[in-house]
Design a protein that fits this description.
Layout lengths: L3 H27 L8 H4 L3 H17 L3 H18 L20 E8 L7 H10 L4 E5 L3 H9 L2 H4 L2 E5 L8 E5 L4 E4 L10 E6 L2 E8 L9 H17 L4 E6 L7 H7 L3 E3 H5 L20 E6 L3 E8 L8 E7 L2
Parallel strand pairs: 1-2, 7-8
Antiparallel strand pairs: 1-12, 2-4, 3-4, 5-6, 6-7, 8-10, 9-10, 11-12
Helix pairs in contact: 1-3, 1-4, 3-4, 8-9
Amino acid sequence: MTRVKPLRRLVVVLLWLVALPVLGLAVVRALPHDGTFPLAQAVGFVPWAALVTVPLIAIALAARRSFLAFLLIVAVGFFGFWMSAFWLPSTSAVPVLDPDDPGTLRVMTVNALYGRVDAEAVVDAVRDENVEVLAVQELTPGLVDALFDAGLDDVLPHSTTHRLDEPAAGSGLWSAVELRDVDEGPDSGFAMPSALVDAGGTDVRVTVVHPVPPLLSTTGRWHDELAVLADRVHADGTPQVLAGDFNATFDHPSFRAVLGDRFQDASRAWGTGTAFTWPADRQIPPVLALDHVVVENDMRVSDVVAVTLPGTDHRAVVATVAVP
């Protein structure tokens, strides 16, 4: 008996040590602000905290820690509420959109990891997925040449590129139709250009999104860049699609501020689960959903998929969007 009690105490201590970060993530997710360290870094792991909470409840109950079990049950309730929409298709999701409908756009975004993505794989994905608009982040002059050699301009002949001479800052937009009214975007660490494309007679502004990552020294700047982007897109009444590496998940308040009451995340609207996209070049599966296609609430979405491409640490995201 004297050995059992110390062992039970050890189990209880370990249980609390694991449970406290999980409960902390529930609190962080409920906060309306993420512009300080370490809130921005922690909140992206909410889906994994939700996964861990269920067995923790069972262990807490088995250990007769009713108060801890109660806290965990409350936390898992909130986690379930926050994540349920990713598994429930919205009214804007439809089983199949006709790719030949001139009012549809097949949009793809990929972070090229300092231009190291395999250019031929990108072009193959563009062809296989019938992509009509391609947004590329961390674009370099060498990658532009490699994409041209791989035949991207034969499929998407219209393009605009920006700030290719700055490490990680370059961005580009390719399209099957003419790009008009090209805008270099806000003054930000990385290029975030936009342009108008025609979708069945409706002008749609497509923006390449890429704020700086929320590192220890850049968390405030990341938050500010997303805030500027939110103000910018909400001030423009033109129908819009935003595609890129937001360096944020849906659990980040800064990302939800970009959405506001006007936009929706295509992956969430499609309802087939969270599209984890980073890191995609490790032995473990991706753990964060940083890359998004964002559309107007009245746009319908279909066939939202994440595509693994060699040479980059981000999975590409592809979505079909129907413009009303």
